[in-house]
Structure formats: structure tokens, C-alpha cells
Amino acid sequence: MPESLPTAVAVLRDQMQSLIDEQLRPLEEQLSDDPTAAVPAEIAQAAREHSRQAGMWAMTQPADFGGVEAGTLALTTVRETLSAANLRLGRYVFGPGPGVLASAEGQLRDAYLEPAMRGEKRGAFAFTEPTGADAPRPTWAARDGDEFVITGRKAFVTGGATADYYTALVNVEAGDGPDQPEGTAMIVIDRESPGVTIEREFRSLEGGDHIAMRLEAVRVPAWHVVGKVGEGMPRALRNIGNVRMSVAAQACGIAQWSVGFAEDHITSAHRTGQRLADREGVRLRYAEMRINAFAMRSMLYRTARLVEEGGDDAVNEVMATKVFCTEQVGQIVDQAVQLCGGGSLIEGHPLERLYREVRSMRFIEGASDILRINIARGRIEFDSGRL
Ligand SMILES: Cc1cc2nc3c(=O)[nH]c(=O)nc-3n(C[C@H](O)[C@H](O)[C@H](O)COP(=O)(O)OP(=O)(O)OC[C@H]3O[C@@H](n4cnc5c(N)ncnc54)[C@H](O)[C@@H]3O)c2cc1C
């Protein structure tokens, strides 16, 4: 529970809170009132620098790159604390993590992981396949000597237009062709490789930039495979597991902020002359928000501890937590909008932005219903998962 953290984690939480209160909030006050305006580079840089000095920047980075490689409980705690502050500068606090390249070795480490950790190269995650009548079979790779020849399409690659490379999930064929799959692999593909075409750039509701892309006989050297052929899906899922916990922590932070915002509103003067908080119907809604936020946080911290203790053994609980927290935060923000009135839907209002932001959380890193199906499968077919 967030109340009974190990001392070292509680210290980190307090350090994050000090960073927020003493450095980030004053910086945030220098931003323009227009929440859609770009953050000036010098302010973003100052936020990064404060975070470095506070020891937060390195928490997401591997130890052999000078990072702290914090455990799941510590990361969950600081992420939730940061999210509960609802700062536009929050995205400059953590350094780039290794993602699926975490265990890259040899040439792959030198050419991609190290530059990525130094901030010189940026990757994007190409997992989702397009749907629709003209969708081809899932992206596949055939071996040709020391190379793979990759063909297919990917949809919804966040940050893909400006990424230097993509870590893509592909099905590798055995020599005998598509009916003889060898296994899945995560393969690094340079954006500039011949055969890579960005078909469409688009922006989603919460403001993220994405691409859809086509891969036509793209040749990549065999050393671009992360790990081995056959390890693609488990590697992608391991990375997704970490990100799911961070999405759940972010959802819990947003829920806390929204409950607090609604509370301030209903306990302030209202034009009717009676505080909204003095009406029983409003209290019922407000209490529901608190109940759900309490349940979310309880689940988040229990799962964080399970991950820390058992690693991959908590895969079902991570999925359950991601589904629950992202669905509940949707309800909470929706209720906050309802209690705060139509003014909270005006462009630029913090609840208006959060209302858009939380909707995408039910798709990213696995759509809710797909995760539900996986949870049921985990129990019924593999006898795994806890209550
Ligand atoms: C903001 C945002 C950022 C994203 N970033 C990335 C990224 O960086 N890289 C990347 O690869 N992808 C990314 N995605 C894509 C995301 O992973 C997918 O949207 C998600 O996996 C769902 O796939 P889909 O959109 O194709 O929907 P579908 O797979 O078509 O599913 C649509 C709905 O159909 C139902 N459904 C589908 N299959 C089943 C089933 N087997 N059983 C029961 N019901 C089912 C579910 O209700 C589901 O929600 C992003 C998405 C968003 C919204």
C-alpha cells in the first residue's frame, strides 16, 4: 500500500515531491496559458536538469549506462506522485529507457542501445498491425544469407515520423516459406532503409503523433534481431509489462488529481448560494470517485510488490491492474467533469485535456478486452493468476 512503503522508496517519493514543489511548479508558471503551445526548449531543458540533480532522470535507465535501474515499486511510486501533480513538464522528468533493446549486446548495443541512452538516437515501437479488408498477412521476414528481408505493414507507431529506427515484431519464416514459421522476432529497422515507406502521419485525441508504415522487402542484417528468433513476442510482452505498470501508475496519479480538483470545486461557493458539497446527490458521486481511486491505488501497489518479488509471475496481475486503473480513471475524470460543470470542457481546461488523455489509455499497451481475454486464458488454460 502507498502507506507502508520501504523507507528507501518513501524517501524517493518525498524527493519527487520536493522536485515538483520546489523546481517544476515554479518553472511551469513560466509557461504560456495556452496548454497546446509548445514548451520552450530552455524550460524543457531546465526541467530535465532539475530532474537529473534530484536523481529522478536516471531511475528509468540501466545501471551500466549510469542509471539507477529502479525497481518496480520505486518507479511506480515516483511515477504516480509525478502524475498526481498534473504538470505539463512531467514528460521531461524521466530519461529514455532501453525498451525492448534492454538486453541488446554486441553490434546492436553499440549501434542502437548506446546512442539511444545518450539521447542521440530515438526508437519507436512497431507492434500493431493494420486491420481492414486490404490488410496483408502479419509482417514477416525471410532469411537471405546474413540478412532478413522484411515485408508487411505496421499501424499506429507513436513517434514514428521522427524516430531513427523501429523495433518491430515480425514473424520469421523457416526456409520453406510462410507455412513454416520459425518464430517471432523483434528486429531493428532503420527509418531510412530502402523499402520503408511512411504511408500516413496522424494525431490521436490525446495529442500523440503516430504513423502507419509499409515495409517492402526491407533488408536488415541478421544482427538487428534483438536476442534470438523465437523470442520476439516474449520480449515485446516483457517490455509491454513494464509500460503497463507505468500507464497504471499514471492513471492513479490522474485519478488523485481529479478527485482533489473536484473536491475543491464542490466545497467552494456556488451560484445557488449553497455549496455543491452540501447536496447529498453530489456527495454520492464524490464518494464513488474516492472509492474507485482507493481501489485503484490499492491494486497498483499490491501488483508493484508482486512484480518486484516475482517478475514474470505477475503478468496476469499487471494486465488486471492496467485494465482496472485505466477504466476507473476514465470514470473518475468523467465524474469530475460532471461535477465541475460545462466550463471544464472548454478547450484549455485541465479536465478537458485529461478527459481526452485517459481515453487512449484503454488502448495503449493492449486494449482492455484483449487483456481480459488473456487473463481468462491465463487462468483457464495455464492455471495462473491470483485473486
Ligand atoms: C495513443 C495510442 C498510442 C499507440 N501507440 C502504439 C505504438 O507506439 N506502437 C504500436 O505498435 N501500437 C500502438 N498503438 C496501438 C494499440 O496498441 C492498439 O490500438 C491496440 O493494441 C488495439 O488494436 P487495434 O486498434 O488494432 O484494435 P482491434 O485489435 O481491431 O480491436 C478493437 C476492439 O475489438 C475488440 N476485439 C479485438 N480483438 C478481439 C478478440 N480477440 N476478442 C474479443 N474482442 C476483440 C476489442 O473490444 C477491441 O478493443 C497505440 C494506440 C493508441 C490509441
**Level-1 CATH class name of the largest domain:** Mainly Alpha
CATH architecture of the largest domain: Up-down Bundle
How many structural domains can be distinguished in the coordinates? 3
The gyration radius over C-alpha positions equals 22 Å
Euclidean distance between termini CA atoms: 16 Å
Count of helical segments? 9
Residue share in β-strands = 15-25%
The SS-based structural class is alpha+beta
Question: Spans with pLDDT under 50 lasting ≥5 residues?
Answer: none
Helix content: 40-55%
Average pLDDT works out at 93
Attached small molecules: flavin-adenine dinucleotide
The topology string of helices and strands comes to HHHHEEEEEEEEHHHHH
The major sheet is characterized as: 8 strands, mixed
CATH superfamily of the largest domain: Butyryl-CoA Dehydrogenase, subunit A, domain 3
Q: What does this molecule look like?
A:
The protein has 387 residues and is α+β, with helices and mostly antiparallel strands. The chain has 3 domains: 91 residues, no CATH class; 104 residues, Butyryl-CoA Dehydrogenase, subunit A, domain 2; 150 residues, Up-down Bundle (Butyryl-CoA Dehydrogenase, subunit A, domain 3). 46% of the residues lie in helices and 18% in strands. A hairpin with a 2-residue loop joins strand 2 and strand 3. Helix 5 runs parallel beside helix 7. The model has no long low-confidence stretch (mean pLDDT 93).
